[in-house]
Amino acid sequence: MNIALGQWQVSREWQENANTIIQLMQDADRQAARLLVLPEAVLARDNQDSHWVIDAAQPLDGPFISQLLAASRTLSLTTLFTLHVPAGDNKARNVLVALRQGEILLTYDKIHLYDAFTVRESDSVVAGQTLPPLLQIDDFKVGVMTCYDLRFPEMARALALQGAELLVLPAAWLKGANKELHWELLTRARALENTCYIAASGECGVKNIGHSLVVDPLGLVIAQAGERPQLIFAQLDKTHLTAVRQQLPVLQHCRLRSAPAFVSPTLY
User: One short Pfam family name for this protein (predicted)?
Assistant: First the structure.
C-alpha cells in the first residue's frame, strides 16, 4: 500500500490550512497514495497566542471539515489529521478525524494530554476517555494515536492486540533539547515492540520539529522528511509484515492479553 505524509507550518487562518490540505490530498491522490497522514491541530495555530487553537475551534459540521469532505468526494484516498472542536467552558477537544470520499470514517478524542516540558494542554483541552476503534484501509488494519500518546507503550500495544498492523500518529512535536531524538526513538520502539508499521506526521516550522517518518515492523525508518514543508511517500508491504510477525511473534507471546486495559476500550 502506498501512503503519503504531509507536513507544513499551520497558519493562523483556517482557510489557508484548508487550502493546503486540499492541495496535499490532490497531490497524494495523483501519486496513487491510499492514505494521507497530516499533523495534529491543523485547523489554526498562532505561535504568539497559544490559546488561538481554542478560540478558532470549529465543530465537525463547520466550514473547515465541510470543505475537506467536499474535496475528498472525488478522491480515493483516506486522509487523517486532528483539529480542535469546541467543548464548552472555554475548552476544546483535540479530535482525530479520518475521512474518505465525502464521509467521516472515524473520530478519536486524544486521551493523553501534553502536560509536560512546561506545557499544560489540559488547561484548555478535555481528555478523551476511550481507545479508538481500528480503521480498515485496503489490506491493512489501522490503529490511530495522537502525538503525546506515542509516549505510552500500553496504548500502542492495546491497538496491536486488537489487530492493528499500521499505527498512524498526527503530531505537533515541540522543539527542544533532544526532542528529535525522542521522536525517532519512540516511533521506532513502538513499531518494533508491536511489529507494526508506524506513519507519524509532524507539523514543521518555528515551533515544531517536522521530521515526519514511516517506520517498518522491525523498527527501521523507511521514509523521513526534514524540517521544511514536504510531502513524502512510502510503500507498506503486507507480506513483509507477515514475515516479521512469524519471525518475531511478540504479540502471540504477550502474556498480558487479559489485563483490563487490553480487554476494555474504556479507560479508568
Answer: CN_hydrolase
- What pLDDT was estimated at residue 258? 52
Q: Does the predicted model carry a pTM greater than 0.90?
A: yes
Catalytic residues: 40, 110, 147
**Residue at grid coordinates 489554526:** 44
**What was the pLDDT predicted at 256?**
76
CA distance 10 to 204: 8
Angle between helix axes 63-72 and 14-30 (nearest 10 degrees) is 20
- State pLDDT tens for residues 163-212: 999 999 999 999 999 999 999 999 999 999 999 999 999 999 999 999 99
Closest of 45, 48, 66, 71 to residue 56, by C-alpha: 45
Enumerate the β-bridge partners of residue 135.
142
Among 101-105, 128-132, 247-251, 254-258, whose mean pLDDT is lowest? Answer: 254-258
Domain range list for the chain: 2-263
Instruction: Give the H/E segment covering residue 188.
Output: helix 179-194
2-263 is classed CATH 3.60.110.10 = yes
Q: Taking a C-beta distance cutoff of 8 angstroms, is the pair 201, 39 a contact? A: yes
260 pLDDT band, cuts 50/70/90, is very low
Residue type, 68: L
Burial class of residue 161, CB neighbours in 10 A (0-12, 13-18, 19+): middle
Full strand arrangement of the beta sheet holding 213-215: 135-137, 140-144, 166-171, 197-202, 213-215, 221-224
